[in-house]
Each structure stands twice: as structure tokens, then as C-alpha cells.
Design goal:
single chain; mainly alpha; 51% helix
Length: 133
Amino acid sequence: ILKEKPKEKWCRKCSKCAFAFTMFAPYVDSVKLRDMFGGSLFADESLLPLFRELLGMEGIKPFECVGTPEETKAALYLVHQQKGHAGTPVMNMFEKEVLPTMKNPEELVKECLTPVQEHAIPKEFLNILKDIA
């Protein structure tokens, strides 16, 4: 009997993986994050065009379920401050090409990454989420 090879959780090549990695990066230890994803997406130079799309620098926003360029910028700004991924191709690109153009990064972080109480979650699902948390 042949057993199926377990599927990888992350392909590490698509915009969804790149965005998820970026959003986790300010909040998850860099070593733990690399373990979660099977490597650092910020260290993969071949992903620079994808990150430029996520940042709204070139091309169009990827069609997959990803956030806005502003959310990506805010998360990368936090990563930049923490220095946990310093020297990687993605952080080097961010620091050289994006950071100098950001007028008020602290305000962007507040607007994009601060949890809010307003939501559109139906009450029946909200109760389930409260039980899980």
C-alpha cells in the first residue's frame, strides 16, 4: 500500500504565502516563522517581483486572498524596526525603495494593523470564535 506524501502547508512561491509570511513576521519569532514556513520567504530573491506587487510598486495586486499594499507596507515597517530579518533581499528592497517614500509609517501601522471592535461577523459565528479563543 502506497501512503500519500503529506502536503506542504505552504508552497512558498505564491502571493498568499508571501502575504501570510509578511503578516506573521512582526509577531512571530523569525526562527519559529522559518520553521513554520520551511524557510524564509524574505530571503528568497526570486520572490522580489511578487513582493513588489504586494507593495503596489509594480504590476497589479495579486488576485489571490491577500491584503492591501498599505497593510503589507505597515507589516514590513514593523519587521524593519525589529531587525529580525535584516539583510534579506526583501527587507533590503523595502528599506531602499519603499521606506524612504513612507510619510508617516507609525500612523499607517495604527490604521492598518490595530485590531478594531467593528466587524461583520454574524453573531452565530462570533459565539463560536469566542469559545475557541
